[in-house]
Amino acid sequence: MSRVLFWNPAETPAELHPLLRNLAEEVPLRECGGAGNLRFEPLPQARRLRVTIRDGVAVVGGGARCGWGRGVAYALAGVEVEENSDFDTFSILLDCTRGAVMTVAHLRRWLRRLALFGCNMVMLYVKDAYLLEGEPYFGCMRGAYTREELREIDACARELGIEMVASIQTLGHLEPLMRWSAYAPIHDTGGVILAEEPASLRLLEKMISFWSEVFPSRRIHLGMDEAHGLGRGRYLSLHGYVDPFRIYLGHLNALTAICRERGLKPIIWPDMFFRLANPEGRYDASKPIPEAVRRAIPEGIEFSHWDYTSTRQESYETMLQATAALNGKTPFMASGIWTWKRFWTDFDTTRAAVEPCIAACRKCGVREINFTLWGDDGAYCEFDSMFATLAWCADCVQNPAGSEARAAKLFEAVFESSYELQKFPGRLAVELPGRPDSSWNRITPAAVLWDDPLMAINYHEMNRIDPELPERLCRRCREIMEYLAGHRGESAPGRLDYAWCVADAAFRRIQLNRAVRNAWRARDRVRLEMVLAEDIPAAIAAMERLAAAFRRQWFRSFKSYGLEIDQNRFAASQERLRELARRLREFLDGCCSTIDELEQNPEFSGEILNCYSQLATGSWFL
Predict the structure, then answer these.
(1) Is 601 helix (H, G, I), strand (E, B) or coil?
(2) Range 459-484 average pLDDT
């Protein structure tokens, strides 16, 4: 257990009192009237953090920008350290748009933990997950944040030395809004809003004004990424073909003017500049950006380059330099902690991308870095499992040479739980044989659990890659279940029972797929009866356990809205397992001569799909 730290308010700088009192809700910090065992001293270097321990007294020394909370965490761990970060901003981006909108209470707890890691900025990625006055469909049935909730979150963050920044969307990625017919008049195509439309600008002005009033920070992230099909939908019908660069820049200038009127400093993702210059729409620097486009970029825009997958330092350097060349300013960097399309944070995939990213940032002089926590495909990750990975990321940001041992000590002092235990279930994402190790070449439990048990789309793909791949997955699931068996009751920060249930359900689904198809090919009626009596009930029971574990971790963290997305999936998966049982029973009883889905042996190419909509059906209605 972490030791108890005592601090004397009379001997502690007054500006640190709110921080320490807030952190006391999370870790063993106590006020005292005498000589405490935790003291603070200012240092002249802005990014420097020093922790020394003499005769049981921890002295935390820091500069104006240092993470005092991180110093407290080291003092709890009993670790002496000297850090002088190359970064001014160490932040996360929390995705609240895929259904999972964190409760204020749980987000306050996250903020305290983030402060203990040295985080000084949090971006809330919200799309429409906030309530906008006069817009009844905006954030409807989404668990959207109210003004009061956001102000409470910001007040907590400011006590902890964390800047809250809104991350919204103002061009593309507005699918949740465009689903409503109320917004049809301002819909261009897909998730893209209709540019140059007065009603569009009125809504966007209302959105930006909302955040200008709610958060004291003068920074706001406007998104503007992946606006695929810009000007090719209703815009084309109204105005004819217009160069997408002209549309994009006109829209960006209008938004910048709105921000300037409110004293806001806009940040955007820069990928559309590179995509529009590339005939294939790729986000890379292979094609030059026209000089006229560069000159038309409005003053005051900050770019945030994003890359979550590259494993080569040179790739990051090339794009950071190309992004800086757009407007002559050093960009913000957005990396990623792999929580999306994962049931548990994927440490290995994260590490493979983050190490070269941070090295490139240092070489290119980037001073602000953000770690995104996306929730693509339903936000079914146990998001609190990300803290072990974030502890390692934080160590790499704060130190020229990252140390996983040092990161583990800090993590274990904050959570009083095992770093290795929390990290280990990330191995549920299994690398594919004979392919470069990257996020795209890993198969996750989603590829098994969302796979329809009759059609087995991914099971066929796996066998095309390597007939032994299903067995490799089974071994990995068994390994994780055995490793976690004695720790299922542990829940700080991530609920290990959830990880065990994921591994158990995936294991049983793979076993079932193999058993039913082997028995079917052999027309082994005895084995098919065993599948009916044993394998299918076991798979259904495992899915029920997983659904229950998922619900428990959801209500610990999130508002009730969004739960229905994955509950529908779990229920549908169980019903399809029951349908497999019905079909087998009908075949064995002579009611039908075949089961068409089990006769299929498609000549797939060996592609791994991890999205529910690609696996639950061969049709396309989802």
Answers:
(1) coil
(2) 94
User: From CA 304, how far away is CA 431, in angstroms rounded?
Assistant: 29
Write down the number of H helices and E strands in the chain: 24, 18
Indicate if the alpha-carbon torsion angle 112, 117, 119, 125 is positive or negative: negative
Q: Which residues of 363-390 are buried (b: 16+ CB within 10 A; e: fewer)?
A: ebebbbbbbbbbbebbbbbbbbbbbbbb
Kindly state the tokens that stand for 617. Answer: 């059906």
In sequence order, the 6+-apart residues with CB closer than 8 A to the CB of 296 are 249, 253
CA dihedral 344, 345, 346, 348 (to 10 degrees): -130
pLDDT for res 1: 61
Higher pLDDT: 610 or 119? It is: 119
- On the CB side of 423, CA atoms within 13 Å amount to 19
Q: Give just the sign of the alpha carbon dihedral 467, 469, 472, 478.
A: negative
Beta strands 332-336 and 368-373 are parallel
* Surface-to-core class of residue 1, CB atoms within 10 Å of its CB (0-12 exposed, 13-18 middle, 19+ buried): exposed
What CA–CA distance (Å, rounded) separates 170 from 173? 8
DSSP H or E run through 136: none
**Does residue 610 have a pLDDT over 90?**
no
- Provide the pLDDT confidence category of residue 150 given band limits of 50, 70 and 90: very high
Closest CA to 171 of 263, 256, 75: 256
Structural element, H or E, at residue 206:
helix 198-214
Q: What is the pLDDT of residue 439?
A: 58
Nearest to 531 by CA among 617, 444, 449, 598: 598
Q: Are 510 and 473 in contact (CB under 8 A)?
A: yes
Distance, CA of 222 to CA of 156 (rounded, Å): 24
Least confident of 166-170, 415-419, 616-620: 616-620
Q: Taking the alpha carbons of 97, 102, 103, 108 in that order, is the dihedral positive or negative?
A: negative
Q: How far apart are CA 510 and CA 468, in angstroms?
A: 12
Mean pLDDT along residues 497-523: 98
Helix residue ranges, H only, 65-162: 68-77, 104-117, 147-159
Q: Is the peptide bond before 425 cis (omega within 30 degrees of 0)?
A: no
How many whole angstroms separate alpha carbon 97 and alpha carbon 276? 26
232 backbone dihedrals φ, ψ, rounded to 5°: -105, 0
Are 192 and 237 contacting, i.e. CB atoms less than 8 angstroms apart?
A: no
